[in-house]
Design brief:
3 helices, about 250 residues, mainly alpha, about 0% strand, two-stranded antiparallel ribbon
């Protein structure tokens, strides 16, 4: 694309140079024509002055080639005729000059048109030659843009993945801390429950021990009562010579 701009710039410069050259040529021809007109006007004035001097120095009448006297009237007619011929010649000369200018302008325009057509044809040929190169350059730039976009997308996906991993790690760390706190609380509760259960078991053992002691004491009292009852029966039945004294005692319980 840079080369295309270079060709456009070159064509523009060529066109500007061509226009500048045409202007210079036109100005040069205009100056030449002005100089030619000035030279001819000067020559015409010089001719008129010479004629006036000839008329002043010539005799009143002239003699033609046959020896006849030419009157002033005839001289004036000839002068008028010469002037008319000179006017016609000047008019024809001016017409030829204008015709030449028109032809030169047409030639310049036709030359400019042909040059422009030739330049356009050369440019088109050059563009056609370099069409494949331009297409390859376009494809290369498209592929490069695709690679850049793919790289940017991959980098963006990687950043997102890293952010998600960091967020997941933070969540896992938070959950782990909560889990450890719960485990600590459960462990503390279990310890307290174990301590309470141990204390309860100890209390239960004490109660059982007390109940055992009470039971043993009752058994002893029952045995003692039965023994005394037997003795009383023996005494009632007269198996003994004297009635023994009955004594009862109660043991204090702790």
């Amino acid at each position: 694309m840079g080369r295309s701009r270079s060709r456009s710039s070159s064509r523009s410069k060529h066109t500007k140079s061509s226009k500048h050259t045409k202007k210079n040529r036109s100005r040069s021809r205009s100056r030449s024509r002005e100089k030619e007109r000035a030279r001819k006007r000067s020559k015409s004035r010089e001719t008129k002055r010479n004629r006036r001097r000839e008329r002043a120095s010539s005799p009143p009448d002239r003699i033609d080639i046959f020896g006849r006297t030419v009157s002033k009237r005839s001289s004036l007619d000839e002068k008028q005729k010469r002037e008319e011929e000179e006017k016609k010649a000047e008019f024809e000369r001016q017409r030829k000059i204008r015709q030449q200018e028109i032809e030169e302008k047409l030639i310049e325009e036709e030359t400019a048109r042909r040059v422009e057509e030739l330049v356009a044809k050369r440019v088109e040929e050059e563009l056609e030659k370099r069409k494949d190169e331009i297409e390859r350059e376009v494809l290369r730039r498209v592929e490069e843009a695709k690679r850049i976009m793919e790289k940017q997308l991959l980098e963006e996906l990687e950043r997102q993945r890293q952010a998600e991993l960091a967020a997941q790690k933070a969540r896992e760390e938070e959950e782990r801390a909560k889990r450890e706190e719960l485990e600590r609380i459960l462990e503390e509760n279990n310890r307290k429950i174990a301590e309470a259960q141990a204390k309860l078991a100890e209390e239960q053992l004490k109660i059982v021990e007390e109940q055992r002691k009470i039971h043993e004491e009752r058994m002893k009292l029952e045995q003692e009562r039965q023994r005394q009852q037997k003795e009383e029966q023996k005494m009632i039945l007269g198996k003994g010579k004297s009635r023994p004294k009955l004594s009862f005692s109660l043991k204090s319980q702790d």
